[in-house]
Amino acid sequence: MDISHTAPIRPLNQRARIEPATLDDLPRLVDLTMALFEIEEDFNPDRRRQERGLRSILEQPNRGRIFVVRTDYEIIGMVNVLFTISTAMGGFVILLEDVIIHPDFRGQGYGTQLVDYVIDFAKRKDFKRITLLTDKISEESQHFFEKLNFRHSSMIPMRLALED
Fold first, then answer.
1. CA atoms of 86 and 101, how far apart (whole Å)
2. How far apart are CA 122 and CA 128, in angstroms?
3. Is 4 exposed, middle or buried (0-12, 13-18, 19+ CB in 10 A)?
4. How confident is the chain (164 residues) per 10-residue block, as mean pLDDT?
5. 145: exposed, middle or buried (C-beta count within 10 Å: 0-12, 13-18, 19+)?
6. Quick one: DSSP state of residue 76?
7. Global confidence as pTM
8. How far apart are CA 68 and CA 58, in angstroms?
9. Which domains does the chain have, with CATH numbers?
């Protein structure tokens, strides 16, 4: 599997396109993840932590990618794609995190196009599976992913926090 080169830029319409994020995008990516974590029950937003995590992905593309929806003026959405290996699948898999579209741009198809972009990326790079976690109290996000053919799993996520 070759993940060394960046994914192509995909125009969405006259105003927006999907492309890999860069370090120059870091402040806006932090803003978006802060907004996401403010509505998720399991996380406490912490600007320094979010910046450190996002920077780690951007500086080490062998670990993952961040794709953004960008207009000529700003980033309006993002998704974080992490790479790992599944022994069950016998190959590389993706953990999909931080799918967020700015509230002013929701309901216009950007989220669907962003996730479709990741699915296409995964297929082209021969990933075996995409896994995501969604907030159990958010029926809206669950319905969004179900429309994109993600299905509930019998696996139950469990966590051990090693840091506050």
1. 29
2. 8
3. exposed
4. 51 77 96 83 82 96 96 93 95 93 91 95 95 73 83 75 70
5. middle
6. E
7. 0.83
8. 12
9. 10-147 (3.40.630.30)
